[in-house]
Write a structure and sequence with these properties.
The complex is a heterotrimer of chains A (170), B (375) and C (182). Chain A is mainly alpha-helical. Helices cover 63% and strands 5% of the residues of chain A. The N and C termini of chain A lie far apart (67 Å). With 375 residues, chain B is mainly beta. In chain B, 6% of the residues lie in helices and 54% in strands. Chain B has helices spanning 60-69, 125-132, 140-145, and strands at residues 11-21, 27-33, 36-41, 46-56, 71-77, 80-86, 94-100, 104-106, 119-121, 147-150, 156-158, 164-175, 180-186, 189-192, 200-205, 208-210, 214-215, 220-224, 227-234, 237-241, 245-252, 254-259, 262-268, 272-277, 280-283, 292-298, 301-305, 313-319, 321-325, 328-332, 341-347, 354-360, 363-367, 370-372. Chain C is an all-alpha fold and 182 residues long. Chain C has two domains: 2-87, Orthogonal Bundle (Rna Polymerase Sigma Factor, Chain: A); 116-181, Arc Repressor Mutant, subunit A (Orthogonal Bundle). Classes of the chains: A mainly alpha (170), B mainly beta (375), C mainly alpha (182). Chains in contact: A-B, A-C, B-C. Chains A and B meet through helix 2, strand 2, helix 4 and helix 5 of A and strand 7, strand 8, strand 30 and strand 31 of B. Strand 2 of chain A pairs parallel with strand 7 of chain B, so a sheet runs across the interface.
């Protein structure tokens, strides 16, 4: 006689007991972390995912029976707004810490190119606001701009850090 | 590429099906916009185009509409076969569509959230070959697992696969071995299933490219956005601009120009030169006699695993660069006069295998078996 | 379960420590149980579980109310456990590129006399790579595309390891009839 052993693991499992003092342990760790909370931009990405809810290959058409403004457009505009604000903030942060004119110029050029792309995708979106793939492209463009600004600031911070001056030749 | 259901339940529509004798042709000029194509080797010295679409659960009207958007044409002029296609918008061999009245919702544990581990281990060339030959394609079941349809009362229910429209793109182009090939692609997905020794000139934008081996000293590939994966690249010049994912098992005899990209290389062999601005690199291995690897970069992040197959000499030259090696952090300060100077030297300079990196405003990390990133 | 936690989670988003501890109290045992599946040392498992919670609170903004909080949290804790395993040399670097034979992946039929414990004991005897993939598939119920994302390996590798793990399990669990002798 046979059984599918995957069935064993479908039911709720008996829970293990935690070591003593685990709660205090955790409270200590939580307090230690309080000061290092970093600003997370993941929420922006996830907000977009919630609208898009897809991965490559899936396209979705949301058919609205009424005349109202498509919630899709409203949601996209809201996300777009938030992203553009963040991008602007990060741009300001970037030029504040960057003192390399060449670097700033190249980034300006890069961001302009991305913005040009964005205008094209926005046109596509106006003509086809139910197309999730276009929304994905919009969001990806915004995310990219934000990400490259964050990355370069991180890079500059690492360059500026104080370090042990151990120069060694092996 | 997963074939999730038996063929034969769908409507098959032929888009373009023609063959051309290669002996009358000097070169091919292929232009793709929003298309998924698979290239393979032609056995009979002819160029074969075989483009069909298979529709499942589509209405007649929908099929007609889709077909009317696809434009394909081919002409021969002065020995050059020009082929153009656009309008399909299929970025994969299989794509799914779902039309619902009230929307769908995502229900899952948001796999998008994953904090990358801070420790990256050295990967073998074999790993990159395996990665290139696998696909993360999901089956329909896997897609639908996390999606729910919403009804007019706002209740969620599982999506019936019968309501999902499936579009299968079967576009194959068979290429004879000697002919020169020019490709211009935008918003597309090109998969080369065989090694290519033809002279290849590629201009790709926001396109996914997957190659086996590409070998020809006159190759020129210019890639903007999108992604690029290959087994072996030998000969020619490559340009990658804002390519999020460049993964190559081995580079040999190539000149590479990169900007704002992420590059992962399984193995560096002889005569590789890279010029970069603000890209991130992972160099996992070096071939036994790689001789000289030259890099010139600004604002780059270079992660390099020490060569294992031979003795080596490493020299970094420049300014304002942080070097990490195990617990050692060496920071070379900026230079007001922008003067380059020797920064770090590892090994005996008489060694025939040399890694020479010119780098300014950069971050370099070295490792034996693993490299830690982050604080 | 969902709705009661909604306001708790909202308070976590503002960094409210009382709410965070309440969430901890609600899920700690279950998450510890999950962590123990991957880390045999209970101290390690507790640490991984708690670090997972800390990470979750740091990134609580990315949690969407449509998703099951427990599943979201579990995923973070599993990633945390895998990080620990990786530091101890769990790697998937050496992949033998195997031909994809069409094997019946869906056949997990074993002798009905076997208990859950028998299965778990046998799983513990598998080599690291197979063990992790088998646990993610069998116990957590992830599919290959999810496993390949969690472990950052190609889908083919996930399939290969699962198949080999299953074969080894079948081998280990065959002598069950002779158990009385030992």
């Amino acid at each position: 006689m046979q059984q599918d052993i995957r069935e064993f693991f479908k039911a709720e499992e008996e829970l293990k007991t935690l070591p003593e003092n685990h709660r205090k342990d955790f409270l200590d760790k939580l307090n230690a972390q309080k000061d290092t909370k970093k600003v997370s931009y993941l929420w922006l990405k996830i907000a977009a995912v919630a609208i898009v809810a897809l991965t490559v290959g899936f396209s979705l058409f949301y058919n609205q029976p009424t005349e109202e403004i498509s919630p899709m457009i409203a949601q996209v505009e809201a996300v777009e707004d938030k992203y553009l604000k963040e991008i602007n903030t990060e741009w300001e942060n970037f030029i504040a810490i960057a003192n390399d004119e060449v670097l700033i110029a190249r980034f300006e050029k890069r961001l302009k190119a991305l913005d040009d792309d964005y205008q094209i995708i926005s046109e596509q979106f106006k003509n086809d606001s139910n197309n999730i793939l276009v929304v994905e492209d919009l969001v990806e463009n915004l995310q990219t701009r934000l990400q490259i600004l964050k990355d370069i600031q991180e890079h500059i911070k690492i360059l500026n850090q104080k370090s042990e001056q151990n120069e060694k030749s092996i | 590429m997963l074939i999730t259901s038996a063929m034969g339940f769908g409507q098959v529509k032929e888009i373009f099906n023609k063959s051309y004798d290669a002996k009358d042709l000097k070169s091919l000029n292929l232009q793709f916009n929003g298309t998924y194509v698979e290239f393979s080797l032609s056995e009979d010295d002819k160029v074969h185009f075989d483009y069909t679409l298979e529709f499942e659960n589509y209405s007649k009207k929908e099929i007609e509409h889709k077909l009317s958007e696809i434009k394909t044409e081919a002409t021969i002029k002065d020995g050059v076969l020009e082929f153009k296609t656009s309008g399909s918008e299929a970025k994969n061999d299989v794509s799914y569509s779902l039309e619902t009245l009230y929307g769908i919702e995502f229900e899952g544990d948001f796999i998008n959230f994953k904090e990358k581990s801070n420790r990256e281990f050295r990967k073998s060339k074999q790993y990159f070959l395996a990665i290139n030959n696998s696909s993360r394609g999901k089956s329909l079941k896997e897609y639908l697992k996390n999606l729910r349809e919403v009804d007019k009362n706002g209740n969620k229910k599982k999506i019936n696969t019968k309501n999902v429209k499936i579009l299968r793109t079967k576009f194959s182009i068979k290429l004879p071995p000697e002919i020169m090939i020019r490709v211009m692609a935008e918003n597309s997905n090109l998969v080369f299933k065989n090694d290519i020794n033809n002279q290849l000139v590629v201009n790709a934008r926001t396109t996914q490219l997957k190659f086996q081996s590409i070998q020809n000293p006159f190759n020129i590939l210019d890639v903007v956005n999108g992604s690029f994966r290959a087994n072996f690249l030998e000969g020619g010049t490559y340009k990658f601009t804002h390519v999020d994912e460049v993964q190559v098992a081995q580079l040999k005899k190539v000149d590479v120009d990169t900007e704002f990209s992420n590059i992962k290389v399984g193995e560096i062999a002889e005569k590789v030169r890279i010029v970069d601005f603000n890209s991130k690199f992972w160099f996992h291995n070096f071939s036994q006699n790689f001789r000289e690897f030259q890099m010139s970069s600004d604002y780059s992040e270079i992660n390099l695993f020490f060569p294992e197959k031979s003795e080596y000499f490493i020299e970094t030259y420049g300014y304002n660069t942080v070097h990490y090696w195990a617990k050692l952090i060496t920071e070379i300060p900026p230079s007001r006069k922008k003067e380059h100077s020797k920064m770090m030297v590892i090994g005996d300079k008489e060694n025939p295998n040399k890694i020479k990196i010119h780098i300014t405003n950069g971050i370099v990390r070295f490792g034996e078996d693993f490299i830690d990133i982050g604080k | 379960m969902h709705h009661q936690h909604h306001s708790l989670i909202e308070r976590c988003k503002t960094g409210n420590q009382v709410a965070q501890m309440q969430i901890y109290d609600l899920y700690a045992k279950a998450m510890f149980t999950v962590a123990c599946r991957y880390l045999s040392n209970e101290e390690d498992a507790k640490d991984a579980m708690q670090d997972g919670f800390l990470k979750a609170f740091l990134n609580i903004e990315s949690y969407r109310p449509e998703a099951a909080f427990g599943a979201w949290l579990k995923r973070i804790i599993i990633n945390q456990c895998l990080d620990v395993l990786r530091k101890n040399q769990l790697q998937f670097n050496d992949i033998e590129v195997s031909e994809l034979k069409i094997v019946d992946e869906d056949d997990w039929n074993f002798d009905s006399n076997l208990t859950k414990n028998d299965i778990l004991k046998a799983v513990e005897q598998l080599i690291e790579n197979h063990k992790v993939v088998v646990k993610l598939y069998l116990i957590e119920g992830y599919d290959h595309s999810e496993i390949s994302e969690i472990l950052d390996i190609p889908v083919k590798t996930s399939r290969t390891h699962l198949r080999r793990g299953k074969l080894k399990l079948q081998e280990l669990l065959k002598p069950k009839y002779n158990a009385a002798r030992y």
